[in-house]
Amino acid sequence: MNELLLIGSVVFIYGMSLVGYAFFGKTGLYCLSALATVLANIEVIILINAFGMEQTLGNVLFAVTFLITDILSECEGKKAANKAVLTGVFSSIFFLVLSQSWLLYAPAEGDFAMESIKTVFSNTPRMIIASLVVYAISQLFDVWLYHKWWEFTTKKFGNKRKFLWLRNNGSTLISQILNTALFTLFAFAGTYDVATLISIFLSSYVIYIFTSLLDTPIVYLARMIHDKKVAKAENNKTTEATN
End-to-end alpha-carbon separation of the chain, Å? Predict the structure, then answer.
């Protein structure tokens, strides 16, 4: 059941990134980036067993943030990709401050939710702070590396559009090593034993390998959506000029 749910989550989340970009452009991806970073910080508290590995549940949502920056890098430019990263950082800070303020309230006698809220959100500050720092470092590095790969392939082969798969996977797979190692260390050191930490790191990175490879067709589809929008806008301009 866990395996089917994870596969379904990948299909749904990646699919929604395409839908968001198709209908709302950059704004759709900025919104999804903000939601993904906030929700991933809640999901990451949950440990599950799937595909024979113990893993945190936030991996897919964290993975989609790398997909978002790759789509923006490819279609909208480096500045837009970095803006998505800053959107995620801003959302995490907002969520951290607000969620911790909930715990300061004195609940009414008839309240039934506060204890559950405390159970979940009293553990989130360390997670969010860790993910905030790691997210900013790894995502900015991913955007930088994506464009370095792009410069390399353009100079080497003289074509700016070719080798999208190389810059996509070459940036994400390397960035995910940094992301996974730093987050596992900052978020879980002292909470779990060394064997569990190693298991979390390995399982998380194995998942990121698959999610990174699976997101490549999504980036190609996003570029097709972008190209069609550009072609349509140019045709409209030509029509208006003719009229």
Answer: 59
